[in-house]
Amino acid sequence: MSYWLIKSEPDAFSWDEQVKNGVEPWTGVRNHLAKRHLKEMRKGDRAFFYHSNVGKEIVGIVEVAREAYPDPTAESGDWVCVDMKAIETLAKPVTLAAIKADPRFKELALVKYSRLSVSPVDAAHWEMLCEMGGLK
Questions:
Q1: pLDDT, tens only, 29-54
Q2: Could you tell me the residue range of the domain that residue 23 belongs to?
Q3: Which whole-number Å values give the CA distances from 23 to 4, 19, 33, 63, 131, in the listed order?
């Protein structure tokens, strides 16, 4: 299993909406590196759901329910989306400030490439972030 972090502006699509909808297409990615990450995702992979701009915090965990397919919101190009299923709300949101304050995360893509909307998370960082979020 691989781990990821996906970002959404909560005023556009929030964690609460993801939970309410259950399974939701993750559309609108228009960065080539982020698109490559979407194409690498496999059914069953897990991702942190991160509120960007407002909140700047990891708030939940989703699972890839359907692998990459053409993004129906794209007007042109070969953009893709995946379907994400809400799995779990973090007991305690993990803020970007807390992540940046911890030197163990200096190589985390969220820190190094702050504008990237879909990024990989290695297993060690996944476990540390889950612990910070109050998950076992």
A1: 999 999 999 999 999 999 999 999 99
A2: 3-132
A3: 17, 8, 24, 9, 25
Q: Is the pTM of this model over 0.90?
A: yes
94, 127 Cβ separation under 8 angstroms? no
Domain containing 96 — which CATH number?
Answer: 3.10.590.10
The number of folded domains in the chain is 1
Q: Does residue 18 contact residue 62 with C-beta atoms inside 8 Å? A: yes
Number of Cα atoms under 13 Å in the Cβ half of residue 35? 13
**Chain centre distance of CA 11:** 16
The one-letter amino acid at 100: K
pLDDT in tens, 93-118: 999 999 999 999 999 999 999 889 99
